Amino acid sequence: xxxxxxxxxxxxxxxxxxxxxxxxxxxxxxxxxxxxxxxxxxxxxxxxxxxxxxxxxxxxxxxxxxxxxxxxxxxxxxxxxxxxxxxxxxxxxxxxxxxxxxxxxxxxxxxxxxxxxxxxxxxxxxxxxxxxxxxxxxxxxxxxxxxxxxxxxxxxxxxxxxxxxxxxxxxxxxxxxxxxxxxxxxxxxxxxxxxxxxxxxxxxxxxxxxxxxxxxxxxxxxxxxxxxxxxxxxxxxxxxxxxxxxxxxxxxxxxxxxxxxxxxxxxxxxxxxxxxxxxxxxxxxxxxxxxxxxxxxxxxxxxxxxxxxxxxxxxxxxxxxxxxxxxxxxxxxxxxxxxxxxxxxxxxxxxxxxxxxxxxxxxxxxxxxxxxxxxxxxxxxxxxxxxxxxxxxxxxxxxxxxxxxxxxxxxxxxxxxxxxxxxxxxxxxxxxxx
Length: 434
Known about the structure:
Blueprint: H1 12-36, H2 38-45, H3 49-77, H4 79-96, H5 103-117, H6 120-131, H7 134-145, H8 147-166, H9 168-189, H10 201-207, H11 215-218, H12 226-230, H13 233-264, H14 273-298, H15 304-319, H16 331-359, H17 365-396, H18 400-425
Helix pairs in contact: 1-4, 1-6, 1-7, 1-8, 1-9, 1-13, 3-4, 3-5, 3-6, 3-17, 4-5, 4-6, 4-9, 6-7, 6-17, 7-14, 7-16, 8-9, 8-14, 13-16, 13-17, 13-18, 14-15, 14-16, 15-16, 15-18, 17-18
């Protein structure tokens, strides 16, 4: 297929990618609302950093459990029904925040939101594996994963305006409505390639052009248990990669508004250019990171594992400078360093998700994504407790900046450690035979 003009085989798979992109965008808009409204809500509800840490942990813990359950469920019921179930639950949960009258009420809404939103990535990664050959998967993943960053760019513009103009309740309601609008398009546009009426035979053959995956189309799909997957080294490579790095992104997502508010006294009742720049950089990183390994495979003829590993090592190194954030008082230098780190994380994310479909048959992809995603969410649920305790401790001492300094050092080291663990468990990312 090398050198083939892809316009002659059709591009419907990129419409599917666009659907996944918009779903991920909505997912992150809904998720980020509470972080953007934190300065407002902590005044209304008298939250401490520990209270907010507990709310974030409630979301993280339910998200972790949901990932494990959804990962297995999607491999059983399929991608179409999996997304329908997921987005209905998370959209209802997003709107339910507007009814919260206490910290416990917010916690309950976050639990439901976490359960619903946990379906996004198992479904999206499995959809990419179903609709794209290996040489395009990292790029497709990078594009849909950039929706996380677009959501993070749109949210700081829209959410503060909605909250400041109509009240914080309306910010939760209208972001929840977006999910139901997207659902209409998903129901009418999506189906797996083997059953899709608008897919040409040429594009179908191109999608299934990886010779080591031919059996995924025709063979009966075996039942695979979690314990069986946990006995495979490649599963643990993905688990450690997610466990050590997901909490860092969640820290960026939930605490950056608070960091800029505390350190530089920014007003989050109106759109914020600093966060917009950071999350725009993340978008570039997500697409660029996915493009890099795909380009190395397609144009340089690198083996898949070499392209993924080299790309991820580069991205891990790019996050190290975040260690020095607290050494400067210039807000734009801080924005540049954190923007680079956020971009590198999303580039890392585009590739680590793709390693699952590189190493596992398609009928096990969602289950493995669920296991690794749960590990990342467990880290994400525990890390906020550490963050909340550190910041509260140093705030009482009158030096909250020292707490942030420790946290940024952790962020800068996490990815190199994660890369080393992944290399230890899957040095050549050998394909699993189940």
